[in-house]
Amino acid sequence: MKKRFLLLLVLTLMFALTGCSMEDEELNFDINKEAAINYVKAVVNSYNEVSDVEYEYYINDGKPIEKTAVAGFRAAQTTDHVGSFLSFDTSEDKVTFKNGARGNVLCSIICKYENRDVKVTVSFTQNRAYDVIKDGTLKQLEEYASQSGASIMDYLQYYYADYGYDMTDEDSFIAGYIYDQYNQYPFDADECEVSPVYSKKELIGKAGVNTGIGMGVVFAVLIFIAFIIYLLRFVPVLLSGGSVSEKKAEKKVEKPAAPAAAPVKKEQPKSASDGNLVSDAQLVAVITAAINAYIEGTAGTGTASARGPVTTDSKDKLIVRSIRRVR
């Protein structure tokens, strides 16, 4: 039950957010949409087709709106080949107003060209100087109307009816009056963007081409890096002198010789006279003296209880004092 409730809540929030996004967003500042659309049309008519001399002037010495406009229309003709200008499409679904990232307002309209449609977007910023001038103008008109004993609109109708100003309301009159007297609008245009409109099929084709070019460049760079790494093996040979073929020939000829067999030494039999060993004559003398001593000690008694020193005829003066039987 809880899972169903959570799912229903999530769906409700999704529909609510969708509904909010479909509503018109509030613009960063109030803007006369009809005047903005007319301004975009004027930009198209003024900078759509310019001569090379005018192009150089606008690019080098023009205002930001002029630079971006002439550059955009020139690129649309030379790169995208949109053709000749035909008409404006200012239907309700083709004109859009939205907020920009710098606190500005973007107005976009669709222009019909010979080969494809072009979307022209002009960025408008709020003119703070206009607000100051408007405030001063309103105070002045109120003062004049008060002195005449009439309302502001009656005063305007009496004094300015023949000047061609819009007398619908105070704001309309003041907007025309300030532009006529001070050349100021409630908003200023600072940039223009010209974007040819492509279909989804054309966009997918362009994306495929760009992807192929990018992958080709990457593989070409990788192959070049692999070739450089392969060439690094020849650097030590070049630094030490000689060619690579000579070095390979030397490696083939100079084979390591087999190690010579070590001479086998025959073990000589050790003689009895080597080291500290006694000679054969001494051994015979010692053994004979020992046997004699043993016989004399055991004669008659059968025991060896009385054992005295035994002398022999050895020249080395060896004396055997006792003999023990090893068991």
Give a summary of the structure in a few sentences:
The protein has helices spanning 2-22, 33-47, 52-61, 64-78, 128-148, 152-160, 170-182, 200-231, 235-240, 244-253, 280-298, and strands at residues 85-89, 96-99, 105-113, 117-126, 187-196. With 327 residues, it is of the alpha+beta class.
- Write down the secondary-structure element order: HHHHEEEEHHHEHHHH
The portion of residues assigned to helices is 40-55%
Distance between the termini: 103 Å
The main β sheet shows up as: 5 strands, antiparallel
Radius of gyration: 59 Å
Taking pLDDT < 50 over at least 5 consecutive residues as the criterion, the unreliable ranges are: 17-23, 271-276
The number of helical segments is: 11
List the helices and strands and how they pair.
Elements (H helix, E strand, L loop, with lengths): L1 H21 L10 H15 L4 H10 L2 H15 L6 E5 L6 E4 L5 E9 L3 E10 L1 H21 L3 H9 L9 H13 L4 E10 L3 H32 L3 H6 L3 H10 L26 H19 L29
